[in-house]
Predict the 3D structure of the following.
Amino acid sequence: MASATMVPHATQYGHRPALAPPSGLSGNPPSRPQPNSTPGRVDYLIGRMQSNGLSQVATDLIAHSWRERTNKQYESAWQQWLRWCCKESFDPYSPSISDVVNFLAHQCSTGKSYSTINSYRSALSSAFPPFDGHNVGKHPLVLRLMKGIFNTNPPKPRYQKTWDVASVLKYICSLPDNKDLTLPLLTRKLVALMALTSAQRTQTLMCLSVTSLHLEENKASFKISDLLKTTSKSNFADQTLTLSSFGQNSKLCVVKTLREYLDRTKSLRTDERLFVSTIKPHKGITSATLARWMKTVLRDSGIDTSVFKAHSFRGASTTWTSCALAHGVSLHEILKTANWSRAETFRKFYHKPISDSTFANAVLNSVN
């Protein structure tokens, strides 16, 4: 059980002024609540660590051990925890393990999915000290509860099926040549081709920079310096996105489309990011804008966008791995392209391929 002396409590819910943002650290600091508001997870965590003797520099660095998106996700779970404790008249800053288990069980009773509750478990585990010698998320009671939640409501994939890659490729082939496309059409075409031929997440496409682009006659390579979802210490220096030309059909060639896009946007670009807004003043775009472009391509290709969202591009392209293997792409290349770490399924169900082909070519050839 958390000690009552660990965190200074000014009121029932532990209100205290927000701490100053981390100093001397690169990147966006974790979000902090405003003074006189209920402390956020990071604010509470830093206060607890400082009460245990850690310095401001040490606690700020520890706060940055979670990525920005993770902190946002955990903060949402933390707010759910605070509301539940308020409703149940519990002190949210000195819970028992029974309080944590009851909170997670309540989330299940309200219809939350296993993955959401698992995220809540991780958020609380990051905030509270161990119970009975176990981290919150690894406590035997919590583990047994999570197994019960899994058995009664197992996680389901978002999509039971996917769309046909050929539908999007046929739509792209129906468009005029690159030089005759409007900037919005050219932009959406490039985004779609890059998503299909690289099998990358939207986050990766968002961070591509023209300053890190190495453009050759038949290839374009982007060196990625941003921290991505799959970035680890072992692969941080090796993050590269490579796009290859497709000679069989110039309308499906991502490199030619990229060249036209670079020429068209050269005078419009105000920063180093590859993608710019298609309307004035042509500033940098958000992930929501990129996702909207991808959904527009799906809609114009005749695909139901009430079911399939932007992230379905990754699933649709990687579904063609059987096609890719049939065209001779190595298993290593497929795993590397899609950032997969486990190959057991592929080794079990597919034959050893021949050489001299690429993942992108296999996907693009599906139009035939």
